[in-house]
Specification:
Blueprint (H helix, E strand, L loop, with lengths): L2 E5 L2 E3 L5 E8 L8 E6 L5 E7 L6 E3 L7 E6 L4 E6 L8 E8 L8 E4 L3 E5 L2
Parallel strand pairs: 2-11
Antiparallel strand pairs: 1-3, 3-8, 4-5, 4-9, 5-6, 7-8, 9-10, 9-11
Length: about 120
């Protein structure tokens, strides 16, 4: 059974940093791409960043580029999202998701339950 468990969310001040983690189990983690996405109340799901299975390919939305870093440790079955220079508009419920293949161009077949990030002074 595929499980994705996010952690690391919380309250941070503008300009601060948070590191989100997504612990995976129930599948061969190193064979699949992973995405981080965000949901804001009243808005749709917004893609934030993605990483291929071998870490060679990473993608970021324009708002995340230069401030966020996605990484993964396949030995620990964990993907991370390091978020720096945080802004109030980064507030939301952050989900990690497993893709169907090693490429983030493939569809998503599993989601975690999310970790809440609140950026406020």
């Amino acid at each position: 059974q595929v499980q994705l468990v996010e952690s690391g969310g919380g309250l941070a001040q503008p300009g601060g940093s948070l590191r989100l983690s997504c612990a995976a189990s129930g599948f061969t983690f190193g064979n699949y791409a992973v995405t981080w996405a965000r949901q804001v109340p009243g808005k749709g799901l917004e893609w934030v960043s993605a990483v291929s299975s071998d870490v060679r390919v990473t993608y970021y939305t324009g708002a995340a580029k230069g401030r966020f870093t996605i990484s993964r440790d396949n030995a620990k079955n964990t993907v991370y999202l390091e978020m720096n220079s945080l802004k109030p508009e980064n507030t939301g419920l952050y989900y990690c998701a497993k893709h169907r293949t090693n490429s983030s161009a493939s569809g998503i077949d599993s989601w975690g339950k999310g970790t809440l990030v609140t950026i406020s002074s």
